[in-house]
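Section 5.1 Outputs to date
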Amino acid sequence: MKKLFILLLLLPSVCWANPPLRVDSTGDLEVSGSRAEDSAAASGDEGIMGLTVRDDALSENGFAGTDGDYQPTATDSYGRTWTNTAIDGATILDGTTPMTPKFKVIDHAATPDNEIVALVASKKIRVLQYALICAGAVTVRFESSTGGTALTGQMQLAANAGISSAYSPVGLFETVAGENLNMELSGATSCDGHLVYVEAP
């Protein structure tokens, strides 16, 4: 049986209208439609289509019943592949945990401590973006807990000067779980701005 099988592989393709298998001169199996790396695409090229499953609403549990099972790629009604970007504008993911961005006004002038965001039990206050301007020359630092661990360096601002950070979905800094977010000022001068944060697990 083994010899017959080898013989069928070596028979010229003219013996078959649709040869079951074909090998090249080195004995490697030829696959119709295969392409070399960086080869240019051309109209009429043949190949094997990688099928996906259309899932317009993206099923929450996917197609596999158990972690580690095989499942197809999900695409929307336009054929675009669903991906997890960890941010959709309304929620941000920490692993698989959804978090809703929250917003806080900064309007403080006490020295040294100013609570920006109150503590949330078992949650970290993760800052995603902030902007701040101070009326007088002052040094500003964000801390985890009142008079607690420094989350930033001491930022020295001139009178009527400020600082603004770009938005970061992964966070700029965060408090210890269960501690408030504090802003430390070196002097009693009015500092105003805004802050975007999430309560992270």
